[in-house]
Amino acid sequence: MSAITSKGLILDEKLIFERSTSGRCGYDLPRLDVPSALPGTNLLRDEIEGFPELSEVDVVRHYTRLSTWNYGVDSGFYPLGSCTMKYNPKINEVVARLPGFAHLHPETPGQLAQGSLQLMYDLQQSLCEISGFPALTLQPSAGAQGEFAGMLMIHAWHKKQGNKRHKVLIPDTAHGTNPATAALCGYDVVPIASDGVLSVEAVAAAMDDDVAALMVTNPNTLGLFESNIREICELVHSRGGLVYCDGANLNALLGMCRPGDLGIDVMHFNLHKTFATPHGGGGPGAGPVGVSAALEPFLPVPVIVKEGEAYRLATDRPLSIGRLRAFASQFGILVRAYAYLLSMGAEGLKRATELAVLNANYIRARLEGSYHLPYKQRSLHEVVFSDADLPNDCHTLDVAKRLLDYGFHPPTIYFPLVVHGALMIEPTETESKQELDEFCDALIAIAEEARHSPQLLHEAPVNARTRRLDETLAARKPKLKWSRDEA
Amino acid sequence: MRYLPHSDQDICSMLEAIGVEKIEDLFSGIPQSCRLPRDLDLSEPLAEADLLRQLQTMAAANTVDDSWSRFLGGGYYDHHLPAVIDHLISRSEFYTAYTPYQPEISQGTLQAVFEFQTLICQLTGMEVSNASLYDGASACAEAVLMALRCGRKRSKVLLSRGLHPSYREVVATYVRFLDVELVEVPLSADGQTDHAAVTKLIADDVAALVVGYPNYLGVVEDIASLSELVHSSGARMLVAAAEPLAMALYRSPGEQGADIVIGEGQSFGLPLSYGGPGVGFIAALQKDMRSLPGRLVGETIDKDGARGFVLTLATREQHIRREKATSNICSNQGICAVMVSIYLSLLGKNGLPQLARDNYSRATYLREQIAALPGYSLPFSPPYFNEFVISCPQPAAEILQRLENDKILAGISLTNDFPEIENGLLVCVTEQNDRSQLDRLVGALKGATV
Fold it and tell me: What is the mean pLDDT of residues A327-352?
């Protein structure tokens, strides 16, 4: 590098393309032991314009340096409400890489892939037991695709009954994926207001014979259990509708309560959140879906079946909604979730739920004096504060950025939409009391700073890799790739 | 329980701070009528050593190992995985990070994904790429939805019969309850999408034509002339690359007039892992940028003017637009996109074309050897890449079964998906198949008919 831009050992690093040096290559080909051939066609490509040229060591340095600019749950606390991550056990990484699993081609004949099929079948049965649903698919690639599968099954079920329904009811506390999914399945979205918890009356007022389904998150995004859920399910069913549950917050219910027992017809799981699979800076996830017996014939293909002692992938399912991805699942993620389930067992899973709820309530107790708490009901796995009490033009975004200076990942901000300036905190069970205390001390100190030195919040972050980034500029003048001319 | 840090004393003092007596009191918001009155029926917790043993046994029940010769492709490809990749992505700063909502502490992921977007544009010859989608098939479905959005009143989509059968199925699933008509375009005798059929079907209600490149049967399609046909009626040309390594040997779809290029990036450094996780990609033209589904990473500056990267153009996405979003997707394949960036950086401008040519040379050797065997024939003419169809003298399933006894997985039977090809078998060759494996396969195919 010609110009020294690194701050000591906080190493600067250009884009990979700017590191490129003509003539380098970081890969040696295996010896070609057949005659070299080239197609005789005018379709041959000249060169891949702009592709980088680097040695192996260049590439290793580059991505190692980039990694140091990231914050993962191994770096520290990650209290992203509703999204959140618990600790990702290391043994799960080891078992997902066992050659028997990692080198298995998806077109391998089933009788030679019994280990993987058994793992999927067992995981499926365990998730059924945990959720109370009699049938389940592991196929969806992430929670949002699970939602999509679930709503497609609801649509297919109605169609089979000869019902023509057009509307889906969604409470105002819902994740944005819920309305987006309903629209993708051809439904009109009808929002319902809730006062923290959805009331039977609010659903009754919106429910009519044109409503295909209610989509509900339980516990909801305020961390509150939807205590009227049984009555709500009965009501929706009595008018010919079905109930979809967004299972993002299942981690608050393990061993305590099973959504399938409450009258819910379909629910997706987020394996990264409840079953400790790593989030990988954005994915891959996995979003299995549990369904009632009535919806079982509509599950996506292939389904995993056990016949005697043998397992196979079955596609002969005339009512199926079809296929959601090229191959059966995000299998590598399923291995990790399965390993987590086996490590925890029934008692460990229940303990995880208890301690996650304990942790969230402890944070709530410690911060209640410093931040505004809009909903006072007893909450479970997460707690939502707001910036309503902060003085001197200090807002949620400022608190979040200031937390970076204290060395913590901020909570989810500005969600749920029903809370203005929301700070949504979800600690999970894998954080110790000491970690929670340090986090709460930081947030309390920040509330104090807002009073006496608000510029510390407005200027934050000052200790992160970059200062506050201009997101408006990024959207106004989108630059989505590197190019030589502009560099 | 090794992952739970609480001591009994911690729990007591936390309960005291909250003001309740026992943990059970915190669950008072769940009515008794909703509670599970028993313990879950799951196994006892396992220690790490026991867990490892149990999973090793299961992995070993997948009885195909590296002593087998494998010629399976069909949308997932067995390429060598440079050790660098797993080593780098095992840095937990990468794999234990969440979606980069806080860009100031996520520059590693953001810059690596910005590089991914750039590499995908360079490889496909397109102008913009997103941050990745679930897999090639769902990317194909998202591209169809995108073409329908861009095409406004157009409601018909043409799918080539040569498009990967699973991609066709996934597209059908995605549009199942939308007002969209899917029409299959047949193949001509040479395995290419039938141009005459496209000419007949193309009309001003058609939003897009989707073809594989190479297609499922291994044939490298003539995208340039298809694009011309499609564009003549204002529709969009969608090209799906299930084996994108081919684009290092053959002209890019972008160069040949494609409007949207999608594909599966598993070939670029990802393990087979029984079909997932892989990584879907989607690349398009600047004019359609705001219709792209999913995450986008963009360049910007910080308060001090230093370069940095953020998630951008979020007004397309579900958390802002809700039911009016371009897709319901709210993740990407994060770490898998980083793996692709690492792989393509390692091979780069020199290595990737060489690897593509190596695959082509091996496929050519095998193809010619098989063609010379009595009873076997090649139904389709070149160009091909690393995969091709052979017509066998007996049903493909029988041949496959016999070769399994010799620890050879000879390919994928086309009997169900392409019954019109007599005893069709799809054979794939990569740099993982050395000459001795190729010769073994030829010998076994010869032996299978006697």
Answer: 98
Strands (E), B71-204: 128-129, 156-160, 181-185
Per-residue pLDDT of A384-427, as tens digits, reads 999 999 999 999 999 999 999 999 999 999 999 899 999 999 99
Instruction: With CB atoms and an 8 Å threshold, state whether B251 touches A129.
Output: no
Could you tell me how many CB contacts below 8 A there are between chain A and chain B?
703
A-chain residues within 8 Å CB-CB of B346? 26-27, 54, 56, 59
Residues 140-159 of B with CB under 8 A from A: none
CATH homologous superfamily of A352-473: Aspartate Aminotransferase, domain 1 (3.90.1150.10)
Pick from B343, B372, B388: which residue ends a domain? B343
B248 touches chain A (CB under 8 A): yes
- In the sheet that holds A289-291, the strands lie side by side as A135-137, A289-291, A266-268, A242-246, A211-217, A167-171, A188-192
Tell me whether residue B235 is in a domain.
yes
Query: Structurally, how many domains does chain B consist of?
Result: 2
Task: Kindly report the CATH number assigned to the domain that includes residue B229.
Answer: 3.40.640.10
Residues 6+ apart with CB under 8 A from B103: A466, A469, A471, B110, B308, B309, B310, B311
Please report, for chain A, the start and end positions of each structural domain, with discontinuous segments joined by +.
Answer: 91-342, 352-473
Judged by average pLDDT, the poorest of A187-201, A321-335, B185-199, B411-425 is: A187-201
Which CATH code fits A91-342? Answer: 3.40.640.10
Contact check, Cβ <8 Å, A101/B361: no
Residue B63 included in any domain? no
Residue B87 structural domain = 83-343
DSSP B40: -
Q: Do B382 and A39 touch (CB under 8 A)?
A: yes
Cβ neighbours of B113 in A, within 8 Å: 281-282
Whether B297 sits inside 8 A of A129 (CB atoms) is: no
Predicted model pTM: 0.97
- Residue A1 pLDDT greater than 80, yes or no: no
Q: What is the pLDDT of residue B210?
A: 98
What's the pLDDT tens digit per position in B99-138?
A: 999 999 999 999 999 999 999 999 999 999 999 999 999 9
